[in-house]
Amino acid sequence: MSQRLADPPPLNVSDLTADPLVQFERWLQDAHQTGAPVDTPMTLATIGGGGLPSARIVLYKGLYQGGLTFYTNYESRKGAELERNPRAALVFWLEALARQIRVEGNVEKLPAAVSQRYFSSRPRNSQLSAYISRQSRVVDTRAELQARMEEATERFTGKPVPCPADWGGYRVVPAMFEFWQGRPGRLHDRLVYRRKADAWTIERLEP
Ligand SMILES: Cc1cc2nc3c(=O)[nH]c(=O)nc-3n(C[C@H](O)[C@H](O)[C@H](O)COP(=O)(O)O)c2cc1C
Questions:
Q1: 3.30.70.20, 2.30.110.10, 2.10.109.10, 3.40.50.720: which CATH number matches 13-112+167-205?
Q2: Mind listing the pLDDT tens digit for each residue in 62-73?
Q3: Is 102 a catalytic site residue?
Q4: Are 172 and 113 a contacting pair, CB within 8 Å?
Q5: Over the stretch 130-147, which tens digit does the pLDDT of each residue have?
Q6: Beta carbons of 74 and 166 less than 8 angstroms apart
Q7: Ligand 1 mutation pick, 46, 57, 110, max ligand atoms within 8 A of CB
Q8: Which is the closest atom of ligand 1 to the Cα of 77?
């Protein structure tokens, strides 16, 4: 468990890199140095029918061509929402450093070959549960899932588990990044990057 900094240092524009992706990776690295796990959880918000927001936690899985990636079931609720409206917001909370990172942008599926490569690197049980789970559908009992798991375990004994066609990654291509540094007395620092054409602007927001 990581320890929280009692008095975090201030955050000024002069502390930031011109490229927010570099800044983002720096902050994640800082968090890992405090003992935060390598698999960083992030809240992913999508937009459902009627503009209704929905949010859940997924694991951040690194950058791919300038986008923040995660893996999931393409037929899940989030998958269906992204199919209709491919925009999302992400939120990271780096507790030990009292830092929050917010990201907004358009979402694209990763190439199937990239998803397949990642799928084959996962532990076998995770592969099998991704294979049998129709994520976000109603299921009557846990026993039904367990029976499907046993059936798949037997079927693929001694063979690789294939990456399901409805499973894979997405990348969120950022148009906005906010770096939030918690500060004493709630006078927090908030610095926002926005993409304007090919360049990034940086502004300070009130806390
Ligand atoms: C710490 C944590 C990490 C998670 N990581 C993932 C993930 O990487 N991919 C995923 O599909 N679901 C992940 N989940 C489960 C999701 O929060 C969610 O229950 C699931 O994706 C179904 O969401 P949906 O019905 O909105 O599509 C994670 C949950 C937690 C608590």
A1: 2.30.110.10
A2: 999 999 999 999
A3: no
A4: no
A5: 999 999 999 999 999 999
A6: yes
A7: 57
A8: 27
